[in-house]
UniProtKB/TrEMBL annotation:
<feature type="region of interest" description="Disordered">
    <location>
        <begin position="41"/>
        <end position="60"/>
    </location>
</feature>
<dbReference type="Pfam" id="PF08386">
    <property type="entry name" value="Abhydrolase_4"/>
</dbReference>
<dbReference type="InterPro" id="IPR013595">
    <property type="entry name" value="Pept_S33_TAP-like_C"/>
</dbReference>
<comment type="similarity">
    <text>Belongs to the peptidase S33 family.</text>
</comment>
<feature type="compositionally biased region" description="Basic and acidic residues">
    <location>
        <begin position="43"/>
        <end position="56"/>
    </location>
</feature>
<keyword id="KW-0812">Transmembrane</keyword>
<feature type="domain" description="AB hydrolase-1">
    <location>
        <begin position="131"/>
        <end position="364"/>
    </location>
</feature>
<keyword id="KW-0378">Hydrolase</keyword>
<dbReference type="InterPro" id="IPR000073">
    <property type="entry name" value="AB_hydrolase_1"/>
</dbReference>
<protein>
    <submittedName>
        <fullName>Uncharacterized protein</fullName>
    </submittedName>
</protein>
<feature type="domain" description="Peptidase S33 tripeptidyl aminopeptidase-like C-terminal">
    <location>
        <begin position="464"/>
        <end position="551"/>
    </location>
</feature>
<dbReference type="GO" id="GO:0016787">
    <property type="term" value="F:hydrolase activity"/>
</dbReference>
<dbReference type="InterPro" id="IPR051601">
    <property type="entry name" value="Serine_prot/Carboxylest_S33"/>
</dbReference>
<feature type="transmembrane region" description="Helical">
    <location>
        <begin position="7"/>
        <end position="33"/>
    </location>
</feature>
<dbReference type="InterPro" id="IPR029058">
    <property type="entry name" value="AB_hydrolase_fold"/>
</dbReference>
<dbReference type="Pfam" id="PF00561">
    <property type="entry name" value="Abhydrolase_1"/>
</dbReference>
<keyword id="KW-0732">Signal</keyword>
Amino acid sequence: MKYSKPALIASVIAVVFAVFMATTILVVTVWSAQSIVNAGGSKPDRSWAESEHYTEPDPVTASSAEDFYAQNIHWGSCRADQITDRGSASKSSLSEYQCARLYAPLDWEEPAGEQITLSLAIHRSGSEGAPALFFNLGGPGGASVNSITYQVEDSLGKDLVQKYDIVALDPRGVGESTPLKCLSDAELDTYNATGSFFGVNSKREEETPQEIVESSTRELTFLADHCEHRSGDLFAHIDTVSAAKDFDMVREVLDQPNFNYLGYSYGTFLGATYAELFPAKTGRMVLDGAIDPSMSVNEVSDLQMRGFEDSIGHWMDICLASKSCPFTGDRSAALKQLKDFLLGLDEEPLPTYDRKRPLTMNLALGAVIGTMYSEDTYPVLTQALSSALKDDDGSQLLYIADILNDREDDGSYSSNGTEALIAINNLDYEAAGTIEEWERDAELLKRELPVFGTWAGYASAGLDTWPTSHAQRQEIHAKGSQPIVVVGTTHDPATPYVMAQRLASQLDAGVLVTYDGWGHTAYSKDAGSCVVGAVEGYLLDGTVPQNGLSCSK
């Protein structure tokens, strides 16, 4: 049989994942290209200054944090590949965008020390003195600069684009800001194919709890050593608190009295952290697909696995009702067939269009989880699984996995999403519980989740060996802030609805808006009038939606 690279699904996947795949703790997602930071990080990366598009920012001789707040910004034109990505809008309107760089301290507690660069882009509203609206699509590890054209032209309502200067800032360690770099392309290939930096297929169901912990510890030690060797001190300073402080500095440099913000998924944690640190500067803020900042890594991971299990059952119901579904029987029987297929790939990977890269269990699992982010990609998963099960062709599932992992046709990776996601989470979370508690929770999830239960649990395993500090999880209140609108989707797989409820209740001025539906996050200009009215009404004229407002399609 001839295995060809699938073209039919490309346009659907690209557009949907540009919106939905930058947003979760569990799934490596679509990010922008970036350069490799010099090992040791002794100087800010200035390789970008060689481009004709940039004017190098003025050097900052800093003795205090205020010196960074006082720097000037020099806007220049943007490269096409800098502000667009797979599924992004056309590149015909590049003149409407400007790009720039700023300096920030590596460590906000030691502003006179080493410096990093931050990359940002702006789309002008056309009105002099317009307020700025920052956005973040999530991650952690997701870039914003490369998605600004999509946000402006395809996601945000036109009234928002006309009212605000839309600002994208790549968080520290991510995208075109000084990036974290840990792994080679070959090492990323190994990890994505097997779930192990050592290329060892983990058989969870055959391992003891102690073996699972020891394996996780080896994996995290390997990654930490590589991050420290290739990125120096940077990998210890890409936490969310530091990123939020960067955002406040940029707000001041742009001469903005308030920080107006639209954050999705992890971006809700970034926004809530900003509001906790700078409540008096917090302007109109909308947090869509919320993360509860008080939950441990175990709680977040367990909820996500339950959310994806809920969504895979919903997808299966739709699949079984169609003529193209490769599964048979009722939902329970069909889900067992799916799981058996995934587990079978450990022993017999499927051939694909790339003879050197068969479809493994880990790649297929990533593709399945990734397509749960939106009902728009359900047919794509059905088609890909049909090809795999009926034709023994794993090409389409591999293609989906490559898009999610940002793997290019030449074998290179256009982002550091995998490294940044793990490293940032390991700064933001600390290990919780005991090995006995992890075992008990994992056994419960295995019993209750017929598909994903095998891979659930042990989220804290090895985390205490990560050689940096770990933030303590705690509630965020943002006392004294303006109202903060929190949007939750009832069947959100990546940030389950209960987290939106909890964040809204923690915030002193939290306002909960509920969307009754499926998929990750709710707002775009094409959402229903209820969600659009609630989000845009607040951002446009400050109309606070009714707390507890419930929306449907």
